[in-house]
Amino acid sequence: MGWLAGPTGGYLLGFVAAAWLAGRLVERFAADRRPLAAFLAMLAASAAIYAFGLAGLAGWTALAGRPVSLPGLLALGFYPFVLGDLLKAGLAAVLLPAAWKGLSRSGRI
């Protein structure tokens, strides 16, 4: 429970929202079968993580008596991670539909 009260708590809660959102988008739009749709679903899920995470980080810094401006908040909790997240989403968006095709050809699904 201590981690939820710390600077990463919002990000941890954001993962729950991101999992729900990604699952919903995949169900509704078959986003796991098309690379662009998969990429957009992953971006939406990442946006949910960042929304919860940055809000939690802002709250945590304010409660700690050291509130941070929006540019400072982005420098702490967004900019260092966004490039890696974009690269991972792009790679996964290409691999996920390819994996479904491979499983389909093998007769496993």
Key structural traits:
single chain; 109 residues; mainly alpha; 4 helices; 79% helix; elongated
Task: Write a structural description.
The chain has helices at 9-29, 35-63, 70-77, 79-106. The chain has 109 residues and is an all-alpha fold. It is elongated, with a radius of gyration of 17 Å. The mean pLDDT is 94.
User: How far is the N terminus from the C terminus?
Assistant: 40 Å
Fraction of residues in β-strands: under 5%
Q: Which regions contain 5 or more consecutive residues with pLDDT less than 50?
A: none
Query: Sheet bearing the most strands, described?
Result: none
How many beta strands in the DSSP annotation? 0
Overall SS class? mainly alpha
Q: What characteristic shape results from the CA principal axes? A: elongated
| SSE arrangement, N to C | HHHH
The helix fraction, in percent, is over 70%
Report Rg. Answer: 17 Å
Q: Give the rounded overall mean pLDDT.
A: 94
Counting H and I runs of at least 4 residues, what is the number of helices? 4
